[in-house]
Structures are given as structure tokens and as C-alpha cells.
């Protein structure tokens, strides 16, 4: 265990400096995939590669460190970058909740001891943490859509509850909010000082970790905001599909994707051996251990530098962890090749993308409502959106990942509006399927809004094949 701790601390030192590197590769169970190892640099798209720090081959421990997203002092970001004659019109932010306690525990082992109270002088630290707790304590009478009004506004348990946001998760989003404040409010004046409630659009799922993450980002963005101006809408679906959630073909894609994932796992003898070894250590059947999803708990141990569990039969160790992570990375490679997840993503992401372009189009007409939209969501929300946009090399959404759509107006041609897409601070606009060739034809560092509108209104359905030209028809296509 001492060796494990020493290795972790060495990696942690590296990760603290480099965990925000803007290059793309997946790392988890559901979403986008990595390029195949061995592909030439010419045939493989890379987004701002950093050969000094990016491992020459996919390293499961390095990938896990990126996933943890341990807060650092500073982060490189490209949000808000535009020529001086462009005016920022609106911003649409999609986040994954911050670092959380596991949703599952490894059977017959002691839960990892993580403190979910917020302590200002404990690492990770943020200068606004104490003020955040104080401000949240004043919001108990705030107006939230039910059932959000029954949720705690910040984590507060000495031993974290299952799925609860940690102090790390709060700090991650306080940092996100402060970064966006510096760019969008201080630099671009997106909102006036006397901003009104209708200039914000706030939506979250019914989990405390998403509500609290949204509030932490909002506090970093608008410190000491007026509670009377804040209203979070509740979204029952992790896909944020609102009234458009019934989609049989989407579910068929997902079933086929899950079957593909299952068959790949059966082929991996090393993975099965590892699960068998771990099951013996904790004295449960292999099937029960696999069903308990041990990687979720192991990631919590890893991200918080807590030793993996031991029993009288031995210890779960880093080698077990690396085998499971390596399989997940291989799963991502195959997922991209099979395209089943892409089909699921195109239908799964359509409702939320359709809402977003509707909001953008209203902004182009001069409407001043909903200039800043925030969706506080999950990995299974962001992953389909990334995949649907064609960002096949995007890493799986880390804790506190952010995906941002910026809408800009050309002051020299006021009728022209453009969009930029940014993922964790990296401009990925020209890696999207709807704008990947535009920069070759135009010197503008953005994509015409009409490209995104055409993609959502038409091209997403074309990519699915069949004759459907709208969401309903694509969801109810016969003979899939």
C-alpha cells in the first residue's frame, strides 16, 4: 500500500499541473471513443496535442487522473476569444456535476472515508468557499421547481452519502464559475450589473449533486447573487428531453449498444481473471462483484488518494484497477467503430440541441431573455451531445466537465451570427461534423449559426439513414 500511495502522489504531482490538458481521448463506460493506437498523426485528428505531456500510448492511470480533474491553480481556456469586431450575444453552458462519492460500494468492504462537509482551510481550497457556504445557508426559502426545493443546497455530511457531491466537486465548479465570470461578465459584459431573472435559464436534474454543482458554478459566476432572481427548473430525464422523451428507436440503439458492450467484456479473459481475483479477495461470487460496478468505488479511492480496500484474503490493488480501465478504453475504440452509440446519441441529444438553437435564434432577433443558460447534468447527458456533434475524439466527461456554445454577432455585418463550441476550455468548433471544413473556406474563427441550425433540423436525421426528416419520424422508424 505504501508503494501504491507513493505512485499516486507522484502521479498526483504531475496531474495537478497537467490534468487540464486540452487533448481528447475517452476514459469511461458510456460515450465517445479514442483513436486506435498506431494510427499515424496524419490520419488521426488531434486537438491541440501536447507531445511533452501526453503519453505516447494510452495510459489508464493517466486517463484516470484526467477524469478526477483535481483542481489546480490555473487553467488554460479559449472561452470568449474572438476578433474585436464580434459581439458576444449569448452563452449556453452544459456541465457535468463535480466530484462525487460513489454510487456503488465494493461488496463486503469498508466504505471509503470521505468527509462531505465544506471546510475552508482544507484542500482543495477556494477563496470563495466559506462565502459560498454562508450564501447557501440563506437560500432555504428560495424558489426552486419541485422536487428541487426539498434538496440540500450544499453537501454537509461528515461521511459522504452515496452519490453526494464532495468539497472537491464544489471547488471544481466554483473555479468554473469564476473563470466564466472573468471572461463573459468582466470582459464581454454579457449581462448588465442589474441583470434580471429572465436573463438566466437554469435547469438541473433532481439529484443533489447536480443542483449543488449548478449553484457552485452560479455563485462563482454571480457572487452573492440575489436569491429572488434565481429559479432552477427540474428536468426528470438525464437526456434533458423534456416533453420529447418517448423515442423507441433511440432505445433500440441503446439496447444494441449495451449488447455490444456485454459481448466485448465476455471476450476479455484478463478482465474476467481480474474480476475473479477481486471476488475472491472480498469473498463474493464474481457475478455479484461485477454487478456492483467496482470501478465506481475504485475511482473514488484513486481520486481521493485513499488506499484500495483490503480483507484477510488480500488487497484490491492498482493492477486490478489498470486492467478494468484498460478494458474501458478498448470498449471506447470499438464503440466508435460500431456506430450504435452514435445512433443513440443523435436521437438522445436532439431535444436539448433543438432547445439551444431555439434560444439562440431568439437572441439573434434582439430578445434579451435567457442570455446565459446553464444545464447542470451528468456524464450520460454530455456524452450523447459530444457524440452527436461529431466530437468522436472527445474524452469522456470528467468530473465538472463543461461544454459551451457561444453565440456571436459580427458588428460589421449585424445580420450575421456565428457559433463557437468549447469543451473544457478547448475550441472544438472545427472538429464538429457540421463545421469541420468551414475554416478551409472562410477566415472567420467561428461557424455560421445556420450550419448548426441545419444540422439540428435536418442533418442529424440524414446521418441516421432512413427517410425520417424530423424527430418524431426518426424515433418511430419501422424496420430498424
TrEMBL record:
<dbReference type="InterPro" id="IPR000560">
    <property type="entry name" value="His_Pase_clade-2"/>
</dbReference>
<comment type="similarity">
    <text>Belongs to the histidine acid phosphatase family.</text>
</comment>
<dbReference type="Pfam" id="PF00328">
    <property type="entry name" value="His_Phos_2"/>
</dbReference>
<keyword id="KW-0333">Golgi apparatus</keyword>
<keyword id="KW-0812">Transmembrane</keyword>
<keyword id="KW-0325">Glycoprotein</keyword>
<keyword id="KW-0378">Hydrolase</keyword>
<dbReference type="GO" id="GO:0000139">
    <property type="term" value="C:Golgi membrane"/>
</dbReference>
<dbReference type="GO" id="GO:0050650">
    <property type="term" value="P:chondroitin sulfate proteoglycan biosynthetic process"/>
</dbReference>
<feature type="signal peptide">
    <location>
        <begin position="1"/>
        <end position="19"/>
    </location>
</feature>
<dbReference type="GO" id="GO:0016791">
    <property type="term" value="F:phosphatase activity"/>
</dbReference>
<keyword id="KW-1133">Transmembrane helix</keyword>
<dbReference type="InterPro" id="IPR029033">
    <property type="entry name" value="His_PPase_superfam"/>
</dbReference>
<keyword id="KW-0472">Membrane</keyword>
<keyword id="KW-0735">Signal-anchor</keyword>
<dbReference type="GO" id="GO:0005794">
    <property type="term" value="C:Golgi apparatus"/>
</dbReference>
<comment type="function">
    <text>Responsible for the 2-O-dephosphorylation of xylose in the glycosaminoglycan-protein linkage region of proteoglycans thereby regulating the amount of mature glycosaminoglycan (GAG) chains. Sulfated glycosaminoglycans (GAGs), including heparan sulfate and chondroitin sulfate, are synthesized on the so-called common GAG-protein linkage region (GlcUAbeta1-3Galbeta1-3Galbeta1-4Xylbeta1-O-Ser) of core proteins, which is formed by the stepwise addition of monosaccharide residues by the respective specific glycosyltransferases.</text>
</comment>
<comment type="subunit">
    <text>Interacts with B3GAT3; the interaction increases the 2-phosphoxylose phosphatase activity of PXYLP1 during completion of linkage region formation in a B3GAT3-mediated manner.</text>
</comment>
<dbReference type="InterPro" id="IPR050645">
    <property type="entry name" value="Histidine_acid_phosphatase"/>
</dbReference>
<protein>
    <recommendedName>
        <fullName>2-phosphoxylose phosphatase 1</fullName>
    </recommendedName>
</protein>
<keyword id="KW-0732">Signal</keyword>
